[in-house]
Amino acid sequence: MAIALTYQPFAGLTGANELIAAWEALRQELSHYLDDETIAEVLRAAVYGAQAHEGQMRQSGEPYFVHPIAVSKILAAQRFDLPVLQAGLLHDVLEDTPISKAEMAQVFGTEVTAIVDGVSKLDRLKDQAPQEAQADSFKKMLVAMTDDPRVIIIKLADRLHNMQTLGALRPDKRIRKARETLDVYASIAGRLGLFYFRIQLEDLAFSHLHPWRYAVLQKHYQQRFTNKTVINRLRQEMQPQLMRLNIQASISKRQRHLWGVYLRMKRKQSFDEACRTIPVRIITQSEDDCYRVLGVLHKSCRPISGKFEDYIAAPKSNGYRSLHSSVLMKTVGAVLNVQIRTRDMHSLAETGIIAVWHQHLKNLSLRNEHHNVVAEKYMRDWLSRLREVQNITDDPLEFYDAVKKELSSGDIHVYTPTGQIIDLPHGATPVDFAYAIHSEIGNHCVGAKVNGLPYAIFRPLQSAQTVEIITDSQAHPHAGWLQFVVTAKARAGVNHHLRSLEKKEARTLGMHLLDAALHEFGSDYAAVEKELVAYAKMQEIEINDLLDDIAYGRKQSGLIAAALLGKAKSELGQEQVLYVHSALDSGVYLGECCHPLNQDAIIGHIERGKGIQIHRRDCVLAKVSDGQDWLRAEWAEDVHGIFNSKLVFVVQDRPKMLSQVAQIIGDCGSNITDLQLERLGHRNDQQRFIMKLEVQGLEQLEKIMQQLRLIDGISQIERV
């Protein structure tokens, strides 16, 4: 689709007056830092985008392209450069118009087009379920961000304007968007140091998720903190001393964002407690001046013990630098939380470490080399972790959940035995640490030492600990690890291993189903292996894939069995029979609802891709089924192994009753694996025993029940 470029802005387009007004607001913002030639290039993208979106409207009734212009204005307020501004204007063109990447690249080049493509949703999303589509789009965006962080800048600006205009959506959509914004996009902004975006996104999400709380909190906050008396008094006390030292510094009150106040209220239980301190920011001209201003502050106000942090000498892992000090201003009786930083430090704190890491953002004068190295390392490490998770899992929902979980917490810093610093989220365990070092170390982790002492692999780590991982080449991840690991890489690594096991189980299930079908013709799986190879070759499919298809119900085992044996479809039996050899048959699971034992009449339920669950024929689930996905099952002649069973009975509450029961069960060759006692409400002298046992079969269980009935004081024995 070709678009003629015209420099008469938006002439003849639907809603031209609204588009012109939106452009004029953007142009005024651009004029503060760009020359006319560069602004003309921004206008070129605006006209191109407006023509591409011609006729499209927002739910608010505005021309659609008012939104991309507003997104670009948000970016301009943060002084982003031409490629980012053009990408902001064009960010929906590939997704919502017929224009192709090739056509856009011809006009704006590959750099801008690549950014726009990273922000765009996948073409196939319309064919997916909403949750899967959202996750797939999210994964594509984050993968693109690992190559070019400007992708997330555009997405955050896009989300910010959408949140500012969320009122046009239905309430359920507003809540869903607000929750996603809080859980994901605000968290990403915070992780990358983009606090300008994070604070606004959090407050907007708060206003939609809890509108009444937001309104009440906003009213009380404005009443409490509109008074400028404290700040004016602080200026009066400090400015004469600063002038004598020839220090130029601006002193202002920091605006607390309401979501942060709300979280503090939840911790401290009251508004007064959450807001008892006054936030202050002092901006200086140089790093040396920061320390000199600190000296003046501590002369004017009394420092509070234990409330000083030097993030200039020791920056945070994301590169953040400032001096923090809490002081008591005696003249007004107020506690101040003061940040002292240079203008460069402030710009970086607001704009984020992307400004350091990416050379396309050149509007900041970044002079501190050490700071650049710290911030760049943090950015690279975090993006590297995302790439590793992407490489481990192809499942977009799993990727989305793993990244969202990791975003939900801050960082700790631990050490390897060689002194290497590893950054991990709060709550991270030795298993998370192991995966952070290397996937194979995580996969074979069996234990850990912290500061030289044994340490449970499920215990959260603390900052400054030295961690050593103990491995075993025969060990593998366990499903239980998913209950305590927190990093995206660890969760993806464990899930990847479990999926590989599931594939093995699925193939075993497919083999079971095919074997059952072959039994109907008097054959079995071992007898047709050569025919199976030939059949798979003819069908142009791998044998393992064929077995997967049988397990997941994509192919009928009866038809394949008939084909392997050269039988006609008319010779197929009415139902297949599955022969169960033990409680541990791979791909076969005994139902926890009815605990079937050998010699019980049984039936199998096909759990697609998981296995066949065996039930007693008198199980409630079997009785209420409509026959779909149920399979005839019988015990094989050579049944072996241990089975679980459960008994419930009522006992008279008297001394040594439990020991008598245990003695009988032991004498019968069984073992108690679990016991629950319930006192009957209507009888203080009776208890109900709920007992799980290990038995070799129905005959042994019936013997146990017979012996228990002989004990005086035991009644109502039932198998469940």
Task: Please describe what this structure looks like.
It contains 28 helices and 19 strands. The chain is an alpha+beta fold and 720 residues long. It folds into six domains: 16-218, Hypothetical protein af1432 (Orthogonal Bundle); 227-351, Beta Polymerase, domain 2; 409-499, Ubiquitin-like (UB roll) (Roll), CATH 3.10.20; 501-565, no CATH class; 578-635, no CATH class; 643-719, ACT domain (Alpha-Beta Plaits, 2-Layer Sandwich). It has a five-stranded mixed β-sheet. Strands 11-15-13-14-12 form a five-stranded mixed β-sheet. The radius of gyration is 34 Å and the shape is globular. The model is unreliable at 1-7, 122-128, 357-370 and 568-574 (pLDDT under 50). It catalyses: guanosine 3',5'-bis(diphosphate) + H2O = GDP + diphosphate + H(+). This is guanosine-3',5'-bis(diphosphate) 3'-diphosphatase. Belongs to the relA/spoT family. It is an enzyme of class 3 (hydrolase).
Concise structural overview:
This protein has 720 residues and is an alpha+beta fold. The protein has 28 helices and 19 strands.
Q: How many helices?
A: 28
| CATH C-level name of the largest domain | Mainly Alpha
Helix content: 40-55%
Form type: globular
Overall average pLDDT: 80
Please give the alpha-carbon distance between the first and last residues: 69 Å
CATH hierarchy: architecture of the largest domain: Orthogonal Bundle
Bin the strand percentage: 15-25%
CATH superfamily of the largest domain: Hypothetical protein af1432
Radius of gyration from CA coordinates: 34 Å
Parts with pLDDT < 50 across at least 5 consecutive residues: 1-7, 122-128, 357-370, 568-574
Domain ACT: 646-720
Organism: Suttonella indologenes
Enzyme class: hydrolase
Keywords: Hydrolase
